[in-house]
């Protein structure tokens, strides 16, 4: 066959087999399943390991045999592939197994990592607890983006807003002499929230009043925040001598936090962590159950329609973007006054960008964005955990940079592959002009 | 609430010598209008005559420079549409002001939300929506998502939206432009029902048949001035058209019979699927000869769009062949088909016909910018493009302030003329044209019809797809009727009737009586 004929027959094959998302995902799972069963399971260390529920030395937990689990997951992948490539009638089941397969990445990663390291077990309850905690700034950042974009203003300056709040909030705390007083700590947290509102107001004025391209305005805010907080750190915070202090103390839920094993890990956390749940719930309530929320959403979808109903589109957009800024300010305070008490350069470490991915993953809904934040929070926690396990492949320890990049890889894969089409608010990014 | 007062009561709305100027244009020049309770007052005029400006002032979106507006005898000045709504004025815009991702109820209550405490009270809102819908005969599903509704249903949502705000004066801006003939009849009965319940209606249109069918009184606007006040009883289509255009309008397209000769476009067993993968065109054999206009009639959604897109290379068929000018063009790209000498005036102008943000000049050379005349080695020759554009807007009577203005500053009719000018100026051998005059005014329709006939007389093969039966009958030499993706019949235009075609469109055959829709 000539090259031309080969190309032509490939083209015909392509016409017959519709390569949609389901088929491609199915093929990939098939490939993975074969690799796991034929390649990985026979060669992996078969010593029994354990998922711990408690700390050593003698933790309770689930004991498991790595090859068995790997073969089980491999079979699930083969089943997914078969259903995905099967008849149209099988597609309903195929969708279900694809979701299960995607979720099984989590146990698979843990099993593989444990089997490839020298550790006999790892604490999974603690891992879940850390995921929730790390999801806090992501959920707050995503909610910021939600308010802004639902009103029609694209906001990629979440990262900069949170960083500024973290820096300014801790600066105030340091200036007040780290008085170890809950009052001044909370005073500084409030300042951080206001700082977030101020940065968002800047973004709002630039995008609404001056109609600066909203992406450009967001980038400018991110760059500005790096410079400003770096300056504040070296010129103000360092000069006070108070480079670290006392952070917020954990609050345990009554009764639940005293449950043995899981209580302290899952039902205890800092005040900003708990406020995060309130913010997500409150956002859902206000955005979807109040007149003002309905108007905000209308401004992000069809501002001209809103205008014909007598709604002041520009005012709603200012309000919504600035409200988002306050939420980002709370997220910033988490970094410098709850997660730790202190400020490092670029301490938000791209959380604002991952929050945007969570927002897209959640299709611009509060609970969707929250789920996205949990997923990315988990991948961050897992990345950190795997660094400590010391995973080795044929004698080489996998470098920690690989695990640090895990959240970003998960972001890419999830947003590109698993979410499917996620439609932003129709008018996001478009400046609005009043009729005259 | 409303008792019908005939004649004696004060007008519900008086517009008195209002003037509104935009940079460079006097959109309304001393315009006056009165609206009586329970009447349908038609506002007639070509595109750009100032109808929309006038009603936008009444609705508070624009503020007049001079003159007064009185509602129920009281002088009012609106700063925004919220003020107008509070005074009982409602407007259904030509382009619906709906939010596609919201439900019907959400769209209706937006801006006038019903609350229980601080939260939205969807249950009460739903009940009120249903009550209004029932009272005025406007069937809407309060829980449906608006984006899933048909155009006719969306229009009903707009009406309920206005009525929900207790509108007594309803402004309907070209409400029938988007409706199919059957929906138009339903719409008229809704409008009459509204006036019987005491609503007063300003009805904007440029379709003369509708004006005579529905109006009580008629005001005609031309170039921002009132040029006529009459009633439907005294007016005729001819008298209204002459007032609108300002000269005698010829309704019958002058057309000589011609001898057709060779086949220019041919499909054999053509099969095309729509976006959802449903077979939209099935085993279609079609032939268009040179020096001939083949009209394709049919209720919209019977495969017309897919047929046109398949011929023009925009949608690969899943069976059969297309031959044009002696080449098999089935799998060709749109550009290659264009270069063969096929012009295409698409149905969806904003999506496939123009780049709205580009200048008029750029839009006029979109199909030819690679020619040596307009670019050399990948660099555009601006002066040649502008010279060409100036000549074309002159020749095609495009009303524009200059060729460098963005296309979306033009009215719909003038934008369509730009598309026609571009497509006809490439010296095509075949013209594929879909809904060429949808939403256009009488003057532009007449002009475009003349151009299509001119082209045929030069020997071009024309495939004309239109939902307007009048247009099909006026222009075509032969008429094919598409019914559920198949050709129900091909007849000579000379020996068919409106009724016969209507029956074919509705049932796919002339032997069965029309059946009720499933």
Description of the molecule:
The complex is a heterodimer of chains A (436) and B (518). Chain A has 18 helices and 7 strands. A 3-stranded mixed beta sheet of chain A has the order 2-1-3. In chain A, strands 4-5 form a two-stranded antiparallel ribbon. A two-stranded antiparallel sheet of chain A has the order 6-7. In chain A, helix 6 (124-150) packs antiparallel against helix 14, helix 11 packs across helix 12 and helix 12 crosses helix 14 (313-339). Chain A has 2 domains: 15-116, no CATH class; 129-418, ABC transporter involved in vitamin B12 uptake, BtuC, CATH 1.10.3470. Chain A has helices at residues 3-16, 21-40, 66-84, 91-103, 105-116, 124-150, 158-175, 182-209, 214-240, 263-266, 271-289, 291-301, 303-308, 313-339, 351-361, 366-389, 400-404, 406-418, and strands at 49-52, 61-64, 121-123, 251-252, 268-269, 392-393, 396-397. Chain A is globular, with a radius of gyration of 25 Å. Chain B is of the alpha/beta class and 518 residues long. Chain B is 32% helix and 26% strand. Chain B contains 17 helices and 24 strands. In chain B, helix 14 (412-424) runs parallel beside helix 15 (442-457). Chain B is globular. Chain B starts with 12 loop residues before the first strand and ends in an 11-residue tail after the last helix. Mean pLDDT of chain B is 87; it is low at 1-7 and 514-518. Classes of the chains: A mainly alpha (436), B alpha/beta (518). Chains A and B meet through helix 12 and helix 13 of A and helix 2 and strand 8 of B.
Q: How would you sum up this structure in a few lines?
A:
The complex is a heterodimer of chains A (436) and B (518). With 436 residues, chain A is mainly alpha-helical.
Give the SSE layout:
The complex is a heterodimer of chains A (436) and B (518).
Chain A: H1 3-16, H2 21-40, E1 49-52, E2 61-64, H3 66-84, H4 91-103, H5 105-116, E3 121-123, H6 124-150, H7 158-175, H8 182-209, H9 214-240, E4 251-252, H10 263-266, E5 268-269, H11 271-289, H12 291-301, H13 303-308, H14 313-339, H15 351-361, H16 366-389, E6 392-393, E7 396-397, H17 400-404, H18 406-418
Parallel strand pairs in A: 1-3
Antiparallel strand pairs in A: 1-2, 4-5, 6-7
Helix pairs in contact in A: 2-3, 2-4, 3-4, 3-5, 6-11, 6-14, 6-15, 6-16, 7-8, 7-9, 7-14, 7-15, 8-9, 8-14, 11-12, 11-14, 12-14, 15-16, 15-18, 16-18
Chain B: E1 13-22, E2 25-35, E3 40-45, H1 51-58, E4 66-71, E5 74-76, H2 81-86, E6 89-92, H3 104-109, E7 115-116, E8 119-120, H4 122-135, H5 151-164, E9 169-173, H6 181-196, E10 200-205, H7 208-214, E11 217-222, E12 225-231, H8 237-245, E13 263-273, E14 279-289, E15 292-297, H9 304-311, E16 319-324, E17 327-328, H10 334-340, E18 342-345, H11 349-353, H12 360-364, E19 375-376, E20 379-380, H13 382-395, H14 412-424, E21 430-434, H15 442-457, E22 461-465, H16 469-475, E23 478-483, E24 486-492, H17 498-507
Parallel strand pairs in B: 3-10, 3-11, 6-9, 9-10, 15-22, 15-23, 18-21, 21-22
Antiparallel strand pairs in B: 1-2, 1-4, 4-5, 7-8, 11-12, 13-14, 13-16, 16-17, 19-20, 23-24
Helix pairs in contact in B: 14-15
């Amino acid at each position: 066959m000539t090259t031309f004929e080969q190309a032509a027959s490939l083209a015909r094959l392509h016409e017959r087999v519709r390569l949609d998302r389901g088929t491609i995902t199915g093929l990939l799972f098939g490939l993975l399943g074969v690799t796991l069963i034929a390649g990985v399971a026979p060669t992996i260390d078969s010593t029994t390991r354990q998922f711990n529920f408690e700390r050593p030395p003698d933790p309770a937990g689930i004991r498991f045999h790595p090859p068995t689990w790997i073969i089980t997951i491999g079979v699930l992948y083969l089943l997914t592939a078969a259903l995905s490539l099967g008849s149209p009638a099988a597609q309903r089941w195929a969708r279900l197994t694809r979701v299960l397969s995607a979720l099984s990445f989590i146990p698979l990663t843990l099993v593989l990592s444990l089997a490839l390291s020298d550790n006999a077990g790892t604490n999974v309850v603690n891992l879940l607890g850390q995921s929730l905690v790390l999801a806090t700034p992501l959920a707050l950042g995503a909610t910021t983006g939600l308010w802004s974009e639902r009103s029609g203003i694209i906001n990629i300056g979440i990262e900069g807003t949170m960083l500024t709040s973290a820096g300014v909030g801790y600066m105030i705390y340091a200036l007040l002499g780290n008085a170890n007083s809950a009052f001044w700590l909370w005073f500084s947290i409030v300042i951080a929230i206001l700082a977030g509102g101020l940065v968002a107001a800047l973004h709002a004025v630039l995008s609404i009043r001056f109609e600066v391209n909203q992406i450009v305005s967001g980038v400018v805010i991110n760059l500005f925040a790096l410079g400003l907080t770096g300056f504040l750190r070296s010129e103000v915070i360092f000069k006070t001598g108070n480079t670290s202090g006392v952070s917020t103390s954990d609050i345990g839920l009554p009764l639940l936090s005293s449950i043995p094993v899981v209580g302290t890990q899952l039902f205890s956390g800092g005040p900003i962590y708990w406020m995060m749940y309130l913010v997500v719930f409150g956002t859902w309530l206000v955005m979807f159950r109040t007149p003002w929320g309905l108007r905000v959403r209308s401004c992000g979808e069809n501002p001209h329609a809103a205008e014909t109903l007598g709604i002041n589109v520009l005012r709603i957009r200012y309000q919504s973007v600035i409200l988002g800024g306050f939420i980002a300010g709370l997220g910033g305070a988490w970094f410098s006054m709850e997660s730790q008490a202190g400020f490092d350069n670029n301490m938000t470490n791209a959380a604002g960008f991952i929050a945007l991915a969570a927002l897209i993953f959640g299709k611009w809904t509060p609970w969707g964005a929250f789920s996205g934040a949990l997923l990315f929070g988990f991948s961050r926690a897992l990345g950190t955990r795997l660094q400590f396990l010391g995973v080795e492949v044929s004698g080489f320890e996998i470098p920690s940079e690989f695990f640090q990049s895990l959240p970003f890889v998960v972001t890419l894969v999830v947003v590109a592959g698993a979410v499917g089409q996620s439609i932003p608010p129709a008018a996001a990014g478009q400046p609005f002009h009043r009729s005259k | 609430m409303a008792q019908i007062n005939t004649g004696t009561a004060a007008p519900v709305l008086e517009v008195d010598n209002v003037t509104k100027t935009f940079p460079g244009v006097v959109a309304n020049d001393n315009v006056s209008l009165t609206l009586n309770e329970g009447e349908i007052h038609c506002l007639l005029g070509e595109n750009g005559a100032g109808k929309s400006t006038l009603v936008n002032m009444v609705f508070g979106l624009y503020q007049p420079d001079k003159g007064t507006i009185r509602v129920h005898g009281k002088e009012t000045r609106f700063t925004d549409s919220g003020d107008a709504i509070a005074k009982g004025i409602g407007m259904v815009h030509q382009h619906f002001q709906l939010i596609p991702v919201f439900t019907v109820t959400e769209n209706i209550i937006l801006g006038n939300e019903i609350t229980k405490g601080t939260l939205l009270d969807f249950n009460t809102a739903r009940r009120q929506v249903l009550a209004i819908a029932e009272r005025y005969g406007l069937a809407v599903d309060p829980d449906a998502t608006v984006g899933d509704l048909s155009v006719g249903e969306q229009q009903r949502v707009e009406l309920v939206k206005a009525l929900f705000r207790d509108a007594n004066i309803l402004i309907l801006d070209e409400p029938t432009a988007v409706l199919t003939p059957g929906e138009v009849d339903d719409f008229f009965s809704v409008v009459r029902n509204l006036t019987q319940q005491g609503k007063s209606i300003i009805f904007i249109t440029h379709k003369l048949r509708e004006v005579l069918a529905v109006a009580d009184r008629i005001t005609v606007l031309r170039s921002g001035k009132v040029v006529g006040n009459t009633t439907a009883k005294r007016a005729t289509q001819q008298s209204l058209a002459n007032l609108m255009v300002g000269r005698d309008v010829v309704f019958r397209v002058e057309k000589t019979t011609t001898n057709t000769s060779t086949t220019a476009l041919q499909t054999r067993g053509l099969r095309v699927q729509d976006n959802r993968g449903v077979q939209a065109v099935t085993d279609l054999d079609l032939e268009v000869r040179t020096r001939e206009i083949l009209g394709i009639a049919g209720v919209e959604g019977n495969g017309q769009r897919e047929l046109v897109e398949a011929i023009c290379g925009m949608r690969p068929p899943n069976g059969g062949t297309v031959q044009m000018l002696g080449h098999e063009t089935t799998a060709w790209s749109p550009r290659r088909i264009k270069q063969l000498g096929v012009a295409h005036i698409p149905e969806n102008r904003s999506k496939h016909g123009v780049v709205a943000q580009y200048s008029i000049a750029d839009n006029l050379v979109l199909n030819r910018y690679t020619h040596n005349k307009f670019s050399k080695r990948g660099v555009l020759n601006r002066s040649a493009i502008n010279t060409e554009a100036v000549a074309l807007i002159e020749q095609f009577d495009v009303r524009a302030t200059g060729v460098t203005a963005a296309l979306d500053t033009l009215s719909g009719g003038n934008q369509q003329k730009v598309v026609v000018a571009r497509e006809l100026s490439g010296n095509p051998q075949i013209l594929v044209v879909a809904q060429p005059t949808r939403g256009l005014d009488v003057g532009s329709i007449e002009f475009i019809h003349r151009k299509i006939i001119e082209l045929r007389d030069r020997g071009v093969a024309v495939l004309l797809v239109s939902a307007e039966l009048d247009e099909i009958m006026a222009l075509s030499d032969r008429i094919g009727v598409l019914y559920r993706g198949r050709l129900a019949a091909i007849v000579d235009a000379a020996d068919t009737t409106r009724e016969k075609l209507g029956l074919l469109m509705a049932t796919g055959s002339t032997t069965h009586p029309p059946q009720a829709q499933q």
